């Protein structure tokens, strides 16, 4: 048996025919039914390339502001770029202006060659929700419908999907409105992070809601939240009936999770996670890709967080992990990681440790003035 936590000790790999490919269009389906969550500052072209090397699935570019695309902001356009080897181009956008969302979708399809567009209706952070985007949008059902319909119209024949949360908080669960709007306005599937926006990433994801959402939805449902090991994905799908899974924090510093997911969905016992030497090989390749994309100065600034994430849990790497927070060049990086023992096995305690977005909940979701008033907007 491969290395796994006690929680997943008795979970079997998938049986033949137990799960189905995830339909995106009449001619395109995703197997295994696994999607890399779009994450700001994370799922840029370098990391998508690293993840694609590990396994199959769908890899979504980081969230982009619709207005930034329509106004052709240089930084937004840079992040909207795709690698030359990305045969299938998937990207997520957000915004609360239907016209801007339609224009952004059209631009991504016609100018950037996008093959799939996802609408973010789940981001809980202030700078997004305070403008009406992310998890704020489902609290305005009529506007949400307009946004989805406009994006679908702008995308033309390219499929549009939706990602959301359970709601703003316990008193404002918005998932029913989101499911209805997604299905009615032409979205191909809906992904749901099983937490409210107030919860941020605290506590445990509430998978029990996913079963309710699946039962209520006429389109496929993807579950998101607390998938740290490949066997978590199988447990989620078996317990809730969702059609696929979205992988977020669980793959940070662990891109081989996608190889493990491909194995378990194809009925194979996955290999143990890589030893430290193999982890460092991935780290070096990631650093090179970041430098190629951003340049050495920016690329190594980005690499600082990744150095901590890749070496997380290796107790013997603590001193080097701290030093990686000030790395400035590829030579600096090589000098530090060359000090580590490549034979160290992957620590079991690192299987389920959060590598980013930790911390508590928020008291309330920041919303535009009057956002929840009946006659707002």
Characterise this structure:
The longest helix has 19 residues, at 276-294. The strands form 3 sheets. Strands 3-4-5-6-7-10-11-12 form an 8-stranded parallel beta barrel, surrounded by 6 helices. The termini are far apart. The chain has 14 helices and 12 strands. Strand 8 and strand 9 form a beta hairpin. By secondary structure, the chain is α/β, with parallel strands linked by helices. The protein folds into 2 domains: 13-265, TIM Barrel, CATH 3.20.20; 276-350, Non-ribosomal Peptide Synthetase Peptidyl Carrier Protein, Chain A, CATH 1.10.1200. It is globular.
Broad shape = globular
The number of domains: 2
Give the number of helices: 14
Amino-to-carboxy terminus distance: 57 Å
CATH topology grouping of the largest domain: TIM Barrel
Using DSSP, what is the number of strands?
12
Run of helices and strands = EEEHEHHEHEHHEEEHEHEHEHHHHH
Q: Quick one: CATH class of the largest domain?
A: Alpha Beta
According to CATH, the homologous superfamily of the largest domain is Aldolase class I
Average pLDDT score: 95
């Amino acid at each position: 048996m491969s290395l796994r936590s006690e929680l997943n000790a008795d979970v079997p790999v998938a049986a033949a025919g137990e799960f189905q490919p995830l339909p995106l269009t009449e001619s395109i389906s995703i197997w295994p039914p696994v999607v890399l969550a779009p994450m700001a500052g994370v799922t840029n072209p370098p990391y998508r390339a690293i993840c694609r090397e590990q396994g199959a699935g769908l890899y979504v570019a980081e969230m982009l502001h619709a207005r930034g695309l329509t106004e052709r902001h240089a930084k937004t356009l840079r992040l909207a770029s795709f690698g030359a080897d990305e045969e299938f181009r998937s990207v997520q956008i957000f915004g609360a202006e239907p016209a801007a969302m339609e224009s952004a979708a059209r631009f991504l399809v016609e100018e950037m060659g996008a093959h799939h567009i996802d609408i973010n209706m789940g981001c809980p952070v202030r700078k997004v929700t305070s403008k009406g985007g992310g998890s704020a949008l489902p609290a305005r059902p009529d506007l949400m419908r307009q946004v989805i319909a406009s994006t679908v119209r702008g995308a033309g024949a390219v499929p549009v999907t939706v990602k959301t949360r359970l709601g703003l908080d316990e008193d404002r669960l918005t998932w029913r409105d989101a499911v209805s709007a997604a299905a009615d306005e032409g979205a191909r599937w809906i992904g749901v992070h099983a937490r409210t926006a107030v919860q941020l990433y605290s506590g445990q994801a509430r998978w029990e809601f996913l079963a309710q959402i699946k039962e209520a939805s006429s389109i496929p449902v993807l579950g998101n939240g607390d998938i740290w090991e490949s066997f978590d994905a199988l447990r989620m799908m078996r317990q809730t009936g969702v059609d696929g899974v979205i992988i977020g924090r669980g793959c940070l510093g662990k891109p081989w999770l996608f190889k493990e997911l491909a194995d378990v969905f194809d009925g194979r016992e996955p290999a143990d996670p890589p030893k430290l030497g193999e982890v460092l090989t991935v780290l070096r390749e990631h650093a090179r890709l970041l430098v190629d994309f951003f340049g050495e100065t920016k690329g190594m600034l980005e690499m600082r967080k990744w150095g901590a994430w890749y070496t997380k849990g290796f107790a013997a790497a603590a001193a080097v992990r701290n030093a990686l927070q000030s790395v400035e060049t590829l030579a600096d990086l090589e000098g530090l990681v060359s000090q580590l023992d490549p034979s160290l096995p992957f620590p079991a305690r690192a299987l389920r440790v959060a590598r980013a977005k930790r911390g508590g909940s928020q008291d309330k979701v920041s919303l535009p003035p009057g956002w929840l008033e009946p006659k707002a907007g």
